[in-house]
Specification:
By secondary structure, the protein is of the alpha+beta class. It has 1 helix and 7 strands; from the N terminus they run ββαβββββ.
């Protein structure tokens, strides 16, 4: 099962669920995410570090790894309209 976001991004259901859980846990206003170059994995950036979430919803945590973006929220690899 796949989930299509309003901007057209498609994620696997378990991947979208894990992304939502982690964003909720670490503060939606303090996290942002993007699809990786492979277009099947998602990276979530938050205060404690980064998570790479694969299409099965498994998340690997990388403590202290940040992208340098501050003050952004939501999906950062698309233009919001």
């Amino acid at each position: 099962m796949r989930v299509t976001l309003p901007n057209g991004t498609e994620l696997g259901f378990t991947q979208a669920l894990r992304l939502a859980e982690l964003r909720q846990e670490h503060g939606i206003e303090h996290t942002h995410w993007h699809l990786n170059d492979c277009r099947c994995c998602v990276t979530l950036h938050g205060p404690p570090g980064s998570w790479v979430i694969n299409s099965d919803g498994d998340a690997d945590f990388f403590p202290g790894v940040h992208c340098g973006c501050h003050g952004v929220s939501g999906q950062t690899d698309v233009e919001e309209h």
